Amino acid sequence: MVSLTFYGGANEIGGNKILLEDKDARIYLDFGQSFDFGEDYFYEYLQPRAAHGLEVYFEFDLLPKVPRLYSKKMLDRTDLKYEKPDIDAVFISHSHSDHVNHLEFLDESIPVYMGHGTHKILEAYHKLYSSLVDIGEHTSLNLFKSGDKLKIKHLVIEPIHVEHSIPGAYGFIVHTSKGPLIYTGDLRLHGPQSNMTHEFIEKAAKSKPYAMLTEGTRMGSEQEHNYTEEEVEDKIHGIVKESKGIVFVYFSMSNIDRFMSVYRAAIKNKKKLVVDTKFAFILDSLKEKIPVLPDVMADKNIQIYFRLSKSGEFEEKDYKVYERKYMPKMVTYKDISKNQKELVMHMGFNKLMELVYLQPKNADYIYSSSEHFLEGEENEAERTVLENWMKHFGVKFHKAHCSGHASKQDLAHLVKAINPKILIPIHTQRAEDFKGFHVNVKIAEKEKKMEI
């Protein structure tokens, strides 16, 4: 009998942590952290410390007390006795925190599988933000690519690339004793690499699956138009063209499609794109796996921003070792202040302090990331601060974004094309709505075993 237990991702968006059991084989599909993880007990600097183990996490029921799963170190101060793990493998679909962030708690002997691109991204972010991104130690870390066939006991797992808002995303065909089971991971069909998702759909359909775990992030979206990355690029291009000053743009550094859209929009308007040293490091780290990315050191269209630090003289000793590589391409607030009309600059919320030095005139700010920030009540205080900064410096605010997840219409197409015998919606708060797409929908419940 094949069964699934949902320790995350059931009736919530994110936090996928799904145990698949078949005969004597036991594997997890993703091992992530929910978006609302700990919000009832922790706030800003009041946070649990992973270095102290799982004691606090168990106290507030933030992680399931599953025996034979966690490392001895993590269990030291808990009442859960350490036992040799009985999990055969953990398969990671992509590097977003809601799919990977709890890997650090696992027993180090449990084999972990992830794509080459996912590993590169996690390595780069760990170097930049070691306290935020840490997958822990694993004695068996295995990297795969699309089309590989990985055997775990009698199970055969086939990763197939899909398009998402981050490179290196995969769905899986898991060949079980009962037949193929599909796990979509997170995907979309409206970006520049949509052919990858179409390939996944084609192969998944061809396998004639008996069950499919499908993401449904946007199932409840009332958005009338499903914006594409091409439309986002066109809008950014138009804003840059009309701007009479510097254009600031915010988007996730791991969203390479968005970077390319902004990069091309800058070039079309004969402007240079300014990124900081962290962003330059991310681009450098991913270029080997994503050849379309420009070489930040050689590309004349890219400048690298160095913040004012320590000595106030922009000396080598002021900066971390990885940053020093980029000093030949250094630009400072003084350079940017003199040439504002010629520049497009990446500017995140936590970098707004630079505006004090830059003193922008006639500037524009494009917010090009999740619209949840602009709509969610929990972000009201941060959003107000952003609005105050824009008002203070007379910066015109714009939105230009498209989702990393499939639209409701595309989800309907996905379900119809793959046509599993059983449909199990996950990564969604609107699982019941899938009953309009399929005659046999099973609703996942957190920490409940589902036999399929």
Task: Tell me what the structure shows.
The chain has 452 residues and is of the alpha/beta class. The protein has 2 domains: 2-221 and 404-451, Ribonuclease Z/Hydroxyacylglutathione hydrolase-like (Metallo-beta-lactamase, Chain A, 4-Layer Sandwich); 229-399, 3-Layer(aba) Sandwich (Rossmann fold). The chain is built from 14 helices and 20 strands. The chain has helices spanning 55-59, 72-75, 97-100, 116-128, 194-206, 229-242, 256-268, 277-287, 321-324, 333-338, 354-358, 372-375, 380-393, 408-418, and strands at 2-6, 18-22, 25-29, 89-91, 112-115, 141-144, 150-152, 155-161, 170-176, 179-183, 211-215, 247-250, 272-276, 302-305, 330-331, 343-346, 364-367, 396-399, 422-426, 449-451. The chain has a 7-stranded mixed β-sheet with strand order 6-5-4-3-2-1-20. α4 (116-128) runs antiparallel to α8 and α6 (229-242) runs parallel beside α7 (256-268). The radius of gyration is 23 Å and the shape is globular. The relative contact order is 0.14. The model has no long low-confidence stretch (mean pLDDT 95).
Write down the Rg. 23 Å
**Strand element count:** 20
Point out poorly predicted stretches.
none
Q: How would the global form be characterised?
A: globular
Q: Strand arrangement, largest sheet?
A: 6-5-4-3-2-1-20
What's the end-to-end separation, in Å?
Answer: 7 Å
Average pLDDT figure: 95
Please give the oligomerization state of what you see.
single chain
CATH superfamily membership of the largest domain = Ribonuclease Z/Hydroxyacylglutathione hydrolase-like
Fraction in beta strands: 15-25%
What is the CATH topology assignment of the largest domain? Metallo-beta-lactamase, Chain A
What is the CATH top level name of the largest domain?
Alpha Beta
Instruction: Enumerate how many helices there are, as a single number.
Output: 14
- Would you identify the CATH architecture of the largest domain? 4-Layer Sandwich
Class of secondary structure makeup: alpha/beta
Biggest sheet, open or closed, and with what strands and sense?
Answer: 7 strands, mixed
